[in-house]
Protein: YbaK/aminoacyl-tRNA synthetase-associated domain-containing protein
Amino acid sequence: MPDTEHETEHDTYDRLITLLDSAAVDYQLVDHEPEGNTEAVSALRGNPESAAAKCIVLRVKVDRKTTRNVLAVVPGDRRVDLDAVKTLYSARYAGFSDAATAERLARSVPGTVLPFSFDADLEVVADPDVVAQPRLYFNAARLDRSLVVSGADYARLAAPRVERIAAPAAG
Structure:
């Protein structure tokens, strides 16, 4: 029986690299010990947490019949402001998606979610501080490899909705 989880990760990684290469985007790959936690992987890569893209799949209930799946992308040293997302969508509820749904939509496991969507049912919303990064770091659909691109190239390729959705980290 094939290991579909790893096939999915591999396919998502390959799709990302193909997208970057076809758009002639200048990017850098960084190999490191397997890690999905933003703080820990930023230390391994040697980048400030604020330059990392933290990617979280959200479930947004607009009304009784309408639920949207949103990929929220915020700086690594911040958290997603769920109230801001709720307001953005004029929604009744905004919260974290369950793990199975997040993995299916993001086509990768937690800790490796890209700031890109390859699923029509997953809308990308990025905080302005993400797209403003001269060097944006994120795990490349793998725990052992990260990617670095400019925030401008990221914005051009991912075409996220850019809205203020980050809040200071708790604590």
About this structure: The helical segments are 4-22, 38-45, 82-88, 99-106, 128-131, 151-158.
